[in-house]
Amino acid sequence: MKLTYYGQSTIEIVANGKTLLFDPFITPNNLAKHIDVNSLKPDYILVSHGHGDHVADLITVQKNSGAKVICIAEIAGWLGKQDITNVHGMNIGGGFNFDFGRVKMVNAVHSSALPDGSNGGNPAGFVIYSEDKAIYFAGDTALTYDMKLLEDENLSWAILPIGDNYTMGADDAIKAAAFVNCKNVIGIHYDSFPVIKIDKEEVAGKFEKAGLNLKLPAIGDSVEL
């Protein structure tokens, strides 16, 4: 299983021969200018919530690829109004089996509205079960005790926001890793805007001191999961 980072919260995971793209936000991100959004042809797009820095390229990528979009029911309804019908709507606590594995939608503490002001439903995270691994994509979230519900899931990796201000910062992400009982962490949602700029060396030191394996791949780089 391979993960590629495209900046902010945009990641791609290849699992069981299928490509999953999470929260596509590339063209407005100056840090990802070298990424050609039109080259992305996922089989699935997973959307954690409706904010622009998570859906900016959603329609473009979906129409280029024909990907099935997995998202909360309200975003599924909004996509229907954009003439996108290859959508699988879910809600918090529900799971569904796809051809690459199982997806469970889990709680996130944040807000959600779509760029045109439409209701984005509740923000969410996902647990992906595939290739005998369980991967937690937290989405945009505060630290929440609900994460303790995942401590027995035998997570292989936790993909956590670390940029602070809009989401958890590094200190709370370290607590989140303890809550979900996962020592392997990939950091997301940092550096794209001035208010979420981090000191990577300082953050890496904090995770190392906590006994955690933190990966911060450069934009366009990949990590084997």
TrEMBL record:
Domain of life: Bacteria
SMART domains linked: Lactamase_B (SM00849)
Record keyword Hydrolase present: yes
GO molecular function, one term: hydrolase activity
Domain spans labelled Metallo-beta-lactamase: 7-189
UniProt-listed Pfam families: Lactamase_B_2
Keywords: Hydrolase
The keyword Hydrolase is annotated on this UniProt entry: yes
NCBIfam families: PRK00685.1
Similarity-based family: Belongs to the UPF0173 family.
HAMAP family per the UniProt record, alphabetical: UPF0173
PANTHER family: UPF0173 METAL-DEPENDENT HYDROLASE MJ1163 (PTHR43546:SF3), UPF0173 METAL-DEPENDENT HYDROLASE MJ1163-RELATED (PTHR43546)
Protein name: UPF0173 metal-dependent hydrolase NPE20_23700
Species annotation: Mucilaginibacter aquariorum
